[in-house]
Amino acid sequence: MMLAAVDIGSNAIRLLISEQKKKNDQAYFKKRALIRLPIRLGADVFSKQKISKKTLDKLILGLQSYKNIMKVYQVEKYRICATSAFREAANKQQAIQEIQKQTGLDIELISGAQEAALIHAQDAMRVFEEKKKAYMYVDVGGGSTEISLFKASKIEYSKSFKIGTVRILEGKDKKSEWKAFFEHIDKIAKKEQINGLIGTGGTINKYAKIITEEKKPTRVSSKAFLELYDKLLSMSYKQRMHIYDLNPDRADVIVPAGKIFSHIFNQTSAAFLYVPKVGLADGIIRQLAL
Q: Tell me, what CATH number does 69's domain have?
């Protein structure tokens, strides 16, 4: 069965098409297509509280293209989820209606908690041998960051904060939200000895790829991560693009993402960051297969 997931994020929109297959009575997913379009809803919403006509037109064009690609792959089931920026837009309902009118596609607004639950559905943490230890699951998006405590092979609880890469770039991250974020991390760190971090999100995937030059799930030390963050912080936007071959819409958000993770490393005893290279779209695919 061919399945499709669309993640309408604050920094970009992504289409993932996967085929559900079976081997020895075990279901697995084979990725058939992954397409990312740099449509930054967060730049509109976090500054002007609404999606502009220009951005909405781009979004509709992108979604219509996705619809055509889904037809080519003969997708049987799909789900389109919109996150932080879209759900905060004052004109979100009008935007949803216009998208439905022009493309025939239905958009679902999901909460931070729902987003975290879909991401956790990957079971990406099964790789850990010391499952009795505590880990902090950190998903950094353009508009929000989800923090979860993972212990004894399960998520104990999650909390979402309005701190994200695009929101920081636009200067719309609030001191009160950072204060709540720091207090939450501190509370977890005092209660649990955090063995490592599990990081998801397109930007953190890029950190891992730069450090290890690997596309598969990987683990990097806190030292290596912080050293790269310091280098990126000292570079100009153009230098980051040139030296690390970054796309324009990745070269700017990579520093805010590093800022979030550096704070967590400094507040916890985490010695490493595990990057499973999965995201919201992967979780949507798994949910569709149920």
A: 3.30.420.40
- What is the pTM for the complete model shown? 0.91
Alpha-carbon separation of residue 204 from 106, 191, 223, 260, 276 (angstroms): 29, 26, 15, 11, 10
Does residue 117 sit within a domain?
no
Are 108 and 136 members of one domain?
Answer: no
User: Which residue, among 26, 18, 63, 17, has the nearest Cα to 41 in the 3D structure?
Assistant: 63
Mean pLDDT within 221-235: 97
pLDDT tens-digit map of 75-119: 999 999 999 999 999 999 999 999 999 999 999 999 988 888 888
Instruction: Determine the structural domain holding residue 21 and report its residue range.
Output: 2-112+282-289
Q: What percent of the chain has pLDDT over 90?
A: 81
Specify the DSSP class assigned to residue 146: E
Same domain, 108 and 183: no
Task: Work out the average pLDDT over 277-285.
Answer: 91
Strands 272-275 and 194-200: parallel
Count up the domains in the chain and report the number: 2
Based on the fold, state whether residues 94 and 129 are members of the same structural domain: no
Specify the residue for token string 């991560």.
Answer: 225
